[in-house]
Amino acid sequence: MAKAAKFDRQEVIDLATNLYWKKGFNATSMRNLQDEIDMRPGSIYAAFGNKDGLFIETLRNYTDKGISLIHQYEQEKDSPLEALKDFVKYQVITTKEDAPNSMCMLTKTINELTSDNQELLDITKAHIEEISQEFAKLIEQSKELGEINSEKSALELAKYLQVQIAGLRTFAKIDGVECNLDKMINECFDHYPFNA
Amino acid sequence: MAKAAKFDRQEVIDLATNLYWKKGFNATSMRNLQDEIDMRPGSIYAAFGNKDGLFIETLRNYTDKGISLIHQYEQEKDSPLEALKDFVKYQVITTKEDAPNSMCMLTKTINELTSDNQELLDITKAHIEEISQEFAKLIEQSKELGEINSEKSALELAKYLQVQIAGLRTFAKIDGVECNLDKMINECFDHYPFNA
DNA sequence: AACGTAATTGAACGACCGTTCAATAATTAT
DNA sequence: ATAATTATTGAACGGTCGTTCAATTACGTT
């Protein structure tokens, strides 16, 4: 044994996540990151490899936090459907003002990157699929409880929800104030394909 | 009078549009553009001002082409609703493989840029609103023909459609092949809020 | 207290960034 | 033919990019 790293890894990753999330991968420079996380280039490269490596860790961090939040809602709420609905509202409404960026970091990355960064793209896609699976689990439970009356599979409904979230968050950034997001989200759950 | 510019302005803007669309604003360098449109820096700056100026022209070009296409469908198709539906399918399905980028250039820009480029952001938002208006016009006509039975206003339905397009295009880029986009789009028009 | 090991530092690298501008070329008007 | 005007060229600017690495520092072990 020798020196132990003095920086708090989780704290650093959180700061990096917020900066990458705010500015996007391309617009975030290593020097921006150095300032934000207060580390010198050598330390960053020793700890995370390179710009991509750090970004990959922040993606993992972002997705883990999202999934944790789903599980938290799952425990707090009365039904899996309520948990899901509240999570969607959190993603679209709360995040709109409280987060580093009103967009989902994963869809933002999907939007920004091209095949020039195929690895990052593939990882991002896989994370979105992970969240699909979490949604599908809740929907499956909800179906068994008879809360949902739909001929569509849980995974289809999960992906339908992700379409709505992606669309609503984009729309919310454009339209600013004058739209009732809460109502629009309720309507997603009240009508087809969630309920015929 | 003296020399006339020898380059074809429309052709140059088309090439620039495709490159900006493909790579995004930040990842497209002036040198990338120089190669793509075969002009030297001095000529580009004389003709378009700077990187932002050229981008603004490509945004205008992109939006104009979109609106023209809507009008073209409007003339070709039997009903305004058919025109609208076909335009949506074109945006989501055809564009997915034939275009420089499967994403809409406008929403991609909204996703990418921050307040560091407020002017570009505002212009982009305004263009999306323009397209809202075009959608609303078709929907209004369609309502008068009795094709749509909805308590929502034409503009609300137009924005609902834009949410669906933004969501579906993101989703389509993630999910790759295994989803029936055509069916999903039909369902948007067949159910609430388009038809109760 | 001295040693070995690993974390940290920060200057420096070559490449590329957006942009400028003096020099040159090409066209029209005289 | 000459002059006037404007488009075009491409080298060059200062700055920033992602990244490297020799030197230094700080800690656990002996």
Automatic annotation (TrEMBL), chains A, B:
The keyword Nucleotidyltransferase does not apply. Residues 6-66 form the HTH tetR-type domain. Keywords: DNA-binding, Transcription, Transcription regulation. It comes from the Bacteria. InterPro entries: Homeodomain-like_sf, HTH_TetR, Tet_transcr_reg_TetR-rel_C_sf. The keyword Transcription regulation applies. Coiled coil: none annotated. Residues 29-48 bind DNA. This is TetR/AcrR family transcriptional regulator. It comes from Thalassotalea castellviae.
